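ARCHIVE CARD
Drawer: 12
Card no.: 0347
Subject: one protein chain, sequence and derived structure
Cross-reference: see card 0346
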Amino acid sequence: MNWQSISTAPKDGRKIILFYKNRNGFDRHVFACWLTQEEVEERDTDGVGLEAGWYEQIDNWPDYTDVSIYEGEPRYWLPLDALPPPPKEPSNGTS
């Protein structure tokens, strides 16, 4: 699968792989999704005034799982189903 222009990315809350360059010029590849204004208002438990847009999805940080991508413009995306399947567990001879 090839990277697609961000203009074609889904904005329905679906998690995707997103590419952007951060403010230091480093390439960033992150899991992300588009959140509507209504969705960010529901998730803004700190009252910081989040806005609709692209949000990195961080699954191992329970306090903040949606982090705004504010330091660069997303350029390309891939569907998450483009990932290869996880490796199969080795058989230990029991069933």
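Annotation on reverse: The CA atoms of residues 85 and 91 lie 17 Å apart. The beta strands are 4-5, 16-21, 27-35, 53-57, 66-68, 76-79.
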